[in-house]
Amino acid sequence: MKDLHSNIYIDQVVGAKVLASTPTPVASDLQDHNSAEIILGIGIGGITFDTTNKIEFVVEHSDDDSTYSAVSTDEMLGAGTISGGIVKALTAAHAAAAVYRFGYIGGKRYLKVTPTFAGTHVTGTPIMCAIAKGDGISNPQDDQA
Hints:
It is built from no helices and ten strands. By secondary structure, the protein is mainly β. It has one domain (18-136): Jelly Rolls (Sandwich). A hairpin with a 6-residue loop joins strand 4 and strand 5. The two termini are 21 Å apart.
């Protein structure tokens, strides 16, 4: 069996909790790592999503952790065509919990993911966002147990 554990480090950028409004994400510093994977854990929708009452997951990157810009289609894997940094949008019923992942291949140092709420969300939705940093220049990576 191959050892993935020693080659990745996970940053939690939005803590696992029920959200009904847009949180402030924590940026992930990709310095000393050569790859990154964005992981979204989304529980059963607290509302029935539509094009007005929705959640859009926006990915942004930065060289200085101050000025952020939205990622584009050619900087991501697995997200399809990206507009405004949106890699995933909940615009229809989300009846089952699921995990989604997207690869970042842009060249900036800092990365963040923001679940952006629009419309009315009387009942929250369970959400977790993490960034797995891989291919570190110094392995093994620290344990996170």
